[in-house]
Amino acid sequence: MAPTEALRASMLFSVRDWVCVISGGGTGAEALEAAAKSHNPSEGGEIIPLGSCDVTSKADLERAYQEVSKKEKYINLLVCAAGLQGTKAIPDEEHAPSLKEKLWNEEEPKVWNDNYNTNVTAVYFTTVAFLPLLQAGTETQGHLSASVIVISSMSGLMRNAQGHFSYNSAKGATVHLSKLMSAEFQQVRVRVNSIAPGYFPSEMTAKKSGPDQKSELPVEAVLSKGHDVPAKRAGSDEEMAQSVLFLAKNAYVNGEVLVVDGGVLNVVASS
Q1: Reduced to 3 states, what is the DSSP secondary structure of residue 60?
Q2: Is pLDDT of 229 > 90?
Q3: Cα separation of 176 and 194, whole Å?
Q4: Could you give the CA distance from residue 80 to residue 9 in angstroms, rounded to a whole number?
Q5: Are strands 191-197 and 77-80 parallel, antiparallel or unpaired?
Q6: Which of 27, 54, 145, 168 could cross-link 155 (Cys pair, CB 3.0–4.6 Å)?
């Protein structure tokens, strides 16, 4: 039984001395450098940009692994957050020939391939690349303490295509991939969970970001999505951080998909 002192929030969710690797932190080496400087923790710790890494390239991923390995003996957490949205084709035609013409002309197989390559394939190979350092983290910190958090999307769980057939289906594959990896990678004592965010400010949702790699998503933009958003706003940085800390620190949670969507999947048909 844990003493009361161990149940304090500062103890339960402390990641002091942890080593974390995050993919998808920004676009381009210069952007990463600027973001690292603006977010450098004031209470200890360090943000170290790894430089340019194409997560769809095995060679780049191996270089990133080797670079981290030279600096660290283990990692406690891998966050796979790189993503791609692709083109949009809204299926709003009631006449089948017109619907075919619209979807046929507004989407291309290459866009679908790029989408799956970034949102699904890259998640798998990024995780595989860092498995040795993750297992070393578990051996250092305790059974199943090291983990992977895959950033999927509520779009991968809803039946509304939102005009993004390629993106939504790819994120659905990301969700299932997370579950597959959680079951198969237990043998090396690494947990895998997924966060399925709703509308959070990012370069993808806001279409831009500042020098600190932060974006804003106004309430009006959230409420114009074509369906109800019960929270009536975008998610916050704090709410995403709380989700990450919960999955990172609770070693009894494995293979779960944590939906953080402001209640959207309560009002939109989902799986």
Answers
A1: helix
A2: no
A3: 10
A4: 26
A5: unpaired
A6: 168
Question: Scanning the structure block, which residue is given the tokens 């997560």?
Answer: 55
> CB under 8 Å to 65, separation ≥6 — which residues?
129, 130, 133
d(CA 157, CA 24): 21
Instruction: For 244-268, write each residue's pLDDT tens digit.
Output: 999 999 999 999 999 999 999 998 8
pLDDT value at 206 more than 60: no
pLDDT at residue 205 in the model: 60
pLDDT range class, residue 196, cuts 50, 70, 90: very high
**What is d(CA 173, CA 153) in angstroms, rounded to the nearest whole number?**
11
Q: 91, 99 in Cβ contact below 8 A?
A: yes
Count CB-CB contacts under 10 A for residue 270.
Answer: 17
- Residue 20's H or E segment, with its range, is strand 20-23
pLDDT in tens, 176-185: 999 999 999 9
Strand 191-197, strand 20-23: pairing: unpaired
Distant-in-sequence, close-in-space partners of 71: CB < 8 Å, separation ≥ 6: 48
Cβ–Cβ < 8 Å for 162, 204: no
- 3-state SS of 63-94 is HHHHHHHHHCCCCCEEEECCCCCCCCCCCCCC
Q: Which residues on adjacent β-strands are paired with residue 79?
A: 22, 149
- Residue 14 carries which side chain, given as an amino acid letter? S
